[in-house]
Sigma-54-dependent Fis family transcriptional regulator
Amino acid sequence: MTRHILVVDDDAASCELLREIFTARGWQVSTATTPEAARLCFARQAFDLVISDINLEAEATGLDLLTDFRAHCPVILITGFGTLDAAVAALRDGAWDFISKPFKVDEVVAAVQSALARKDEARKGEAPAAAPAVGLADASGLVGRSAAMVALYKEIARVAPTRSTVLVLGESGTGKELVARAIHRHSPRSGGPFIPVNCGALPEPLLEAELFGHVRGAFTSAVADRRGLWEEAHHGTLFLDEIGDLPLPMQVKLLRALQEGEVRRLGAARPQQVDVRVIAATNRALEAEVAAGRFREDLYYRLSTVTLHVPPLRQRRDDLPLLAEAFLRQVAQTVGRHLWFEPATLTVLAAYDFPGNVRELQSVIEYAALHARDDVIRPEDLPLKLQPVKPSVPDTSPAGSDPNPFADLPTLDELERRYLTYVLEAVSGHRTRAAEVLGVDRRTLYRMAERLGVKLTDDRGLDEP
């Protein structure tokens, strides 16, 4: 069966690119650069699928076309502004998938194949998947347009309207609580409380009282009845951060609360029903903790009904400038100044691995803003661990004499070779930083190195040409 796809994008080049991709796989393709043209195409013939940009330069958008066409065929939306709110809006309104530009060919083809396969199932009498009923809320606080983040946005949009327990995994500082808050904010419970609990911050007796509450006389200082945080989260979301640090006895009580939907205050005779959605998070490998006997297997499976992975910053380097700018705007608003980055500063930031992830980046930006001499954030304003090394001319003079780089009367080429070698060593072979120190662009650096016989290396693989 020949498939017919309608591509809608106000950029004619994008339309032609998708036409080439799809026709190469045997699909027929029609294109439209305006919503009006798309509607005319749809009126003339039936399509198996529509793939449209969201942000069309017209009164109507891709979301409007989604409303028009979704009852007739699957619709995939593409956007150059990949955000959580955009993903939620697209999937809420019934889009089959949501893809962020620049996209990978394999990603688009896989989405189209999946949508067409689902259309075939619907023809055989199977009901198509229902769009999640999610209400669009305010900004999530999550920043990023990388493929990893857009994939995370789609998972958040899909899980938010459900009642499922969610386990959020990721390294320290990646933004796991932001993910939990985004799930809550886009869920039917958004009008209820969001209660965060750090499971590793309190000793076991205090943690139990904090979570489940107590009655008067339950222990020496219990002079009155007190609701626990679990009850405080009634009709809302309880976020259990650092769940991997929960002591084993508390794991048993947590499992019962999850399974039964009820909690018993310390000293109380009877439990009470509580309607709470639980989202847990940890930077530990819980499967390894289970194997080591430090975490209950039954609790692990109860918590991991849905598991989301938050990528570390080093796996989403394309998002670093967006994050840095967002943090700088926050600081600028706090201090009442207009702050901006010198381009070289963003280059230095991009060369650093940020083992502390987004949280460390935020700290670095705040430090730089407080140490900047004016409104421009320069590389020298960054913490010492990030500052580029400023090489000095090596001392080639005999021992005991005054430093003199010309003592052996080198040729200009030899002196240039020595200096280039020294700069490359000083910046650990990072080509972009070496070019900045030398005051040239990277292409000039390559030509210089070839002329002087200096080998360019980058042992961290961060700056490949």
The CA atoms of residues 329 and 339 lie 7 Å apart. The longest strand covers residues 276-282.
